[in-house]
Please model this.
Amino acid sequence: MSIATHWLGIDIGGTFTDVVLYDTAGGTSVSLKVLTTPGDPQRAVLRAVREMLERAALPASAIGRVVHATTLFTNALIERRGAVTGLITTEGFRDTLEIGRERKYDLYDIAIENPAPLVPRALRQEVAERIGPDGDVIVPLDLADLRAKLRVLQDAGVASVAIMFLHSYADPTHEKMAARAIAEWAPGLPVTPSHEVAPEIREYDRASTTVASAYVKPLAARYLQSLSDELAAIGVTAPLLLMLSNGGLTHIGEVIRNPVQMLESGPAAGALAAAFFGARDDCSELLGFDMGGTTAKLSLVEGGEPLIAYGFEAGRQKRFMEGSGLPIRISTVELIEIGAGGGSIARADALGLLKVGPDSAGSEPGPVCYGQGGTQPTVTDANLLLGYLNPDFFAGGTIHIDVAQADAAMRMLAERLGLTRDQAASGIHTLVNETMAGAARVHIAEHGRDPRGYALLVTGGGGPVHGYGVAKRLGITRLICPPSPGVASAWGLLVAPARVDRVRTITFPVQTGDLAALEAAYVALERDASQVVADAGLGTAPLVQRLADGRYVGQGFALVVPLPPGPYDSDDSRAALTAAFEVEYRRKFARSPPDVTLEFIAARVAVRTPAHDGDLAGLAAEAGGAVKAHRPAWFAEAGGFVDTPVYDRTRMAAGDTFSGPALVEDPGSTLVIGPGGQCRVSQSGSILVELA
Amino acid sequence: MSRAISEVELQIMWNRLLSVVEEQGQTLVRTAFSTSAREAGDISAGVFDLRGRMLAQAVTGTPGHINTMALSVGHFLHDFPVETWLEGDVFVTNDPWKGTGHLYDLVVVSPTYLDGKMVAIFACTTHLVDMGGVGQTPEGRQIWHEGLYIPLMKLARAGVMNEDLLGIIRANVREPVQVIGDVYALTACNDIGSRRLVEMMREFGLSEVETLGEMIIRRSRAAMTEAIGKLPKGSWQASMRIDGYEGPIDLVAKVTIGEDTIEVDYTGTSGMSSYAINCPLCYTEAYTTFGINCVVAPYVPNNAGTLDAVKVTAPPGCIVNATYPAAVYARASMGHMLPDVVYGCLDQAIPGRVPAEGTSNLWTLKFVAGHGLTSVGAGKGSSFMVMSFHSGGAGARPEQDGLSATPFPSGVRNVPVEVTEAITPLVVWRKELRADSGGAGRMRGGLGQIMEVGSREDAPFGLFAGFERTKFPARGRSGGGAGALGTVALKSGAKLGPKGLQIIPAGDRVIVEMPGGGGMGSAAERSPAAVKRDVRLGYLTEEAARRDYGLAE
Model:
């Protein structure tokens, strides 16, 4: 057996599959981008892996770890390409999935449509049973009824079954009985009971999550098993680890048990990468800003770790409109998605004001300057005309750019707005910066924090172009641009820790509740989560964080707060739990109301291994002669265009310093630095910019 | 010192101002105790200039506060001249005629200071857990029945809370801790708004908001003028009969589209009721304006400029301009119906642009038990009061079926069944779409839903009913059929009334069948594929498919 010296990261997106190969001894990495093969996604992966091993002249046995993230399951949800799924509910509640929260998500739009339920009405069957919120059996489960309803579903050809009984978060007895019975009557038919997926109160959110899980389960099982088999067939025998939405790693079995955990795995890798690159320059409080062609994503890193949220919406019917998607209750890296990317279209809105996005020119036809038929100016066109992007070095010189067409389109828009061409172009750039800054400001304020305490870490094609302006608007004084920012996200796959989150609904008045029961609930959750970490072969002494969803009795919104470690066994514990909540509450909402009673309504644990200490080699202190040209670029501080030096990133050395205005080009992106920015190339290879 | 603002800066600062009030509103939703605020987003939050003109408002769950709060700030400025305000002052009222239409909503108004100078005003409002009086039922007959009445006054003076007022509130309400919690939540949300506005002004170097405000208002007004300019000019009249309390009510509207304004006059509408379904004019204006904006210019953010484009009038003493001392708790019974009447007019002016009539009024289930209601003394079961928002079907749209079990014009969400059951002994036995309830048509009306509710205890419970469309259905447009009527009955068979306290005896259940929305266009024009799909999904029984659509299988 040869020594495993390399790790492999695989990220399958809708358009591209990225593969990174990391040499653990040398600290170097190489990456490869190939087109995704949607019908048979492992084909692209295998091709890329083979090619990569050939190029590096490595045997497959040199791979010691494979980490995988993918948007395949998300796309299956959005495009409704999952399994024919049946749903079995408590009698009287088959329409919960369709009725939802009875909400018109856009108040002013009379033409909205709700997302179609993943399970059509005929495949939603009811059985007689009822357990109350206290766990008392009101109506026993009618197994004969269940058997008849299962037959209906089988006759309709379902390939997966979800079970959603009321109050199963409090007492799963009936769901367990039903799942066992179905397994006996229909061996091989995947069964997903709701208490195993999202044991939380609120029937619609739990049903939605459970059904989504059942819907992608057959696809996930088939795909992951075959990827694992085929990797083994070419000699890669290292265990296949999967990235979860919360940024943790786990094994195939856990993902097949509940595949919705993997829905946000790609963006999670990006947030981990931000944390990783920040840490290399001693920054643990970061705002990650990843801007691509159609959207931008913001993530917050605190104390070196991405913040976690406890639910999100998949497949929104109306882009970026809260409430228009399918609620998924899982732990996930907290991401703010903004509908502005390089391809976002600028236009005059109904009020005669400039508006950018969320419509995007995508890659077909793409920005006007691609010369593929686009006629409406985009963010990329504006950045080109402002001198930020180099027409002769687009995507490293692989795309031909037509400046004249972009210019003509921008002039037409400017005329409609009563502006000059440069005012329109700089307006687009500035407006995008403000949109990003505005979203970040609200997001950071919601956590009761001040943006000035963060460094901005820019990735993606657009992050480095807009980062300086965004940082300036937020009052952020430090910007970090990692090496190869265009492909930096995939690196997150290789530094991920194992992480498993578990949650359970509880009722615990903090002053009077049963402490022993609370302690027992946490211990049970910790045991379950630790087992998954151990099963993935990722360590047996993980870090455990307890959290609780708390609120004042009568409030509807619960705040998730970290708690001190257990055991909770005395009145001192009550004081400590109360204090932990109140500190967070005041930070968020300024003041606590008087005379109120505190309760915890859910117990959560996060069980993790430490992030991996694998590192990239730094830069050598040589090269030089990095200034390759000068060109005019537009800066508000300078009152217009100024002649600006253009640096070649590949020729920069650790310790190099320079000041803005400056443009730094590498094949995937251009870093734009305004006048007054002081830049230094760090040993880590990142460019650090201090803003005045 | 004021400074000029460029076109691009206007868009940037306007966006920022909208995100300031959005955060102000979110703070309220997250810290409030009342169900309607936290589950349904029944709140309002906005920023005003020193003349009391609203510059930006958060887009929240319901339009009922849209211009009620906007006008309210003007009343405060009238009673308390701006030069007498101090930093740290907070003002409050629940005056139905100067606030938002009933005593249950508290309006809280706070000044914003930049470097010691007052520069703006923040206001917010929400529906409280309780305000005393007879409770959340339309059975009050005079405003004094309905609870504590707080005239325009200071809630805090220069940063010191008015403990006398807080003491009076505590003594008059059923849930003092939660109500005071809501008062604090309202105050805090204005503080957050002020803080963010000051940060914004410093960042952009603004010393006042009037210049920006003037640009926002002018630009919005111009957009409204342009949108109205595209409409045909003239006057159109329509009316709609609804159940009312003691007898049917006719809502009559005349819409006049002018060069740059739309006037809506409710002359001809029935007089006031003895019960609490009366609607003050401020609330009438709110829903009328909202209904028009949805069709005419939904893309223009709401502010003093947009509000200026719609003029609403009604003769004093009619049910949509109810006068003191009428009981007004359930003013939404009228307010929610107004867009349907206005659309009756607009459908003549701009055919094919407005939806058919819908359930419109919320079918909120308010369950109660306790002394004096379902028992004398402690009784056998628990005491509780729980409110759960639900909706029937909405009207068919010009090119789409109506939304089933979805509110319009209100924008509230329901309360999950598991939540209701966890805090009461109630059991919801079913909650399902109601077949055949959507009005027939080329586009079908939205379906209502059926809920069946009993108790785990061997004790009676009560339902505070306040339901519409139980006698007069939501009508279709352009030949579309009417939606089904709503019904309330015991499982054992007896019918219950649609208004006021209804008792469900121990061991029995209540079955609530919510109305459906009206259809659009002739049923004969509906595509056979759509009819077959409706039958397959059980939205339509085969019998109704034959009867209404002539579908022969």
Notes: The two ends of chain B are 77 Å apart (CA to CA).
